[in-house]
Design goal:
Elements: E1 5-6, H1 7-14, E2 17-19, E3 25-26, E4 28-30, E5 40-43, H2 56-61, E6 66-70, E7 82-85, H3 88-102, E8 106-111, H4 116-128, E9 133-135, H5 145-151, E10 159-163, H6 172-179, E11 183-186, H7 200-208, E12 219-223, H8 229-238, E13 243-248, E14 255-256, E15 258-263, E16 266-273, E17 276-282, H9 287-302, H10 307-316, E18 325-329, E19 336-341, H11 347-359, E20 367-372, H12 381-386, H13 388-395, E21 399-403, H14 407-414, E22 420-424, H15 431-437, E23 443-447, H16 454-465
Helix pairs in contact: 3-5, 4-9, 4-10, 7-8, 9-10, 11-13, 13-14
């Protein structure tokens, strides 16, 4: 078992005390008592619904070496191997700071209103070709996810890639200062979480907080396809960032994406970077995917990686589950093609997904859209959902299903132009109707906020259509 932290390092980093501990080190860090690796440190975080202290015994039984716990709960954990600190979440943050301080890795932080996880996965796939790379998993990008991922940074890693998210202003600053990136990548500025802000400028300022933690001599790499470039550049300069690089479809960008072409299941474009005209080839469709690829290319160029390896990694990239993954179900000649965008939705990502859907053609059947509400839009929810109407019309679906509070209203407005197969408040009311409406040869896209549970629909469609055709 290789050691991530020795017990002595855990004590030194947190100022805590151990009891009932005989091990010399821990191999990993986890907050999930069910899925941790043997030899892990289990961190007992108290959340909104669960308190990790209630699962310490299960974690130890499942192979954890010891648990990081808050002093106030020690009395309920008698006899178990513990690292005791005043507050477990704060202790996790101290471990994250320690892991970053000892690391010689080049570190990339990624934020944005949409596309963070996909961009993170692209950057990870590029950097992995150049050396040992540690990256955030899933969407662990909040006040506990970032320190959890950073604390797991091995001292041997050559690169680290961390996703940083926010719901309110002020949340990114402490996380960026913890990560201390050499490069900060902003994927876009959109109206995600607009319900928590007065206006779009507030969102741009919140994303610009990522500049605060950039290491001296580091770089900001920013997508230019929005109206807040001047503001972001000013924020970067105020933070002391010397290298500011922009990319995107905007002609004002430093690295402009040109000659974009969207074929079935893929995308192509050309960019000029470092004085070279480069051809990009992806096996995933969409303008947003091309933009993410160029962002990853800019990161690689700044780190001095070989362009050939970078382009090869981009060409082999597959979209993460729930974030544009494409499944061809059934026979090779007449499959049902499923575009899985079930993980999340906001106005920017919805527009991007509808753009992808618009450019695709079914194998032999119909184009079918399953759309669900976008969350965290506050008092602007009605307006922002209504703005989807022309984008849905342009996507030209043959059949539309709508789920939630707002999308059924949109479907009603569209009904004269678009055939509506069904609408409901909850997925459970309409799931079977949707599945029964599909057939081989169809193209179907599923898109909505994660809280709607559309992943269950994707699972049902895959189960129903995987074997036939």
């Amino acid at each position: 078992m290789s050691g991530l932290f020795s017990i002595a390092e855990l004590i030194e980093s947190t100022g805590g005390r151990v009891q009932n501990v005989s091990a010399k080190s821990v191999s990993s860090i986890s907050i999930d008592s069910r899925a941790l690796k043997r030899g892990a440190l289990f961190v007992a975080i108290k959340g909104d619904r669960f308190d990790g202290h209630d699962f310490v015994a299960a974690a130890i039984k499942n192979g954890a070496t010891l648990a990081l716990v808050s002093e106030a709960r020690v009395g309920t954990l008698e006899g178990l191997p513990l690292l005791v600190v005043p507050d477990a979440l704060a202790g996790l943050g101290q471990l994250a700071v320690a892991a970053r301080a000892r690391s010689g890795a080049k570190v990339v932080a990624i934020t944005g209103s949409a596309g963070k996880t996909t961009a993170k996965e692209m950057v990870r796939s590029v950097l992995e070709r150049a050396g040992e790379t540690h990256a955030s998993i899933r969407s662990y990008n909040n006040h506990w996810g970032v320190p959890l991922m950073l604390a797991g940074l091995p001292s041997s890693a050559q690169f680290g890639v961390f996703e940083i998210g926010m719901n309110h202003g002020g949340e990114i600053t402490p996380l960026s200062n913890m990560v201390r990136p050499h490069i900060a990548l902003i994927t876009n500025i959109g109206s995600a979480h607009i319900g928590n802000f007065k206006n779009m400028e507030g969102i741009a300022r919140a994303k610009g907080e990522v500049f605060s933690g950039i290491e001296p001599g580091g770089a900001a790499i920013v997508n230019a396809d929005h109206a807040y470039m001047i503001l972001l550049k000013e924020l970067a300069e105020k933070a002391g960032v010397k290298h500011f690089v922009t990319y995107g479809f905007a002609e004002s960008a430093d690295i402009v994406i040109r000659n974009a072409d969207f074929r079935t299941g893929g995308s192509d474009a050309r960019v000029n970077i470092g004085g070279r005209d480069i051809s990009l080839v992806l096996n995933v469709p969409g303008e947003h995917m091309l933009a993410n690829a160029v962002g990853a290319l800019c990161v690689a160029e700044h780190l001095g990686l070989t362009t050939q390896d970078t382009l090869a990694a981009i060409a082999e990239f597959s979209a993460p589950v729930g974030r544009g993954a494409v499944y061809r179900l059934g026979s090779k000649t007449n499959p049902l093609v499923l575009i899985d965008e079930s993980y999340n939705a906001n106005p920017a990502s919805m527009a991007a997904a509808l753009g992808v859907f618009s450019a695709q053609k079914p194998v032999s059947g119909r184009k079918i859209l399953v759309l669900a509400d976008m969350f965290e839009l506050g008092e602007k929810a009605d307006v922002l959902h209504a703005r989807l109407i022309p984008e849905i019309e342009q996507a030209s679906p043959d059949l539309l299903f709508a789920i939630g509070e707002y999308l059924p209203k949109v479907a009603t407005e569209l009904a004269p132009q678009v055939k509506v197969g069904g609408a409901a408040d909850r997925l459970s009311e309409i799931e079977q109707l949707i599945v029964n409406s599909l057939d081989y040869g169809d193209l179907v896209m599923v898109k909505g906020s994660n809280g709607v549970g559309l992943g269950l629909l994707v699972k049902a469609i895959r189960s129903r259509f995987a074997g036939g055709g």
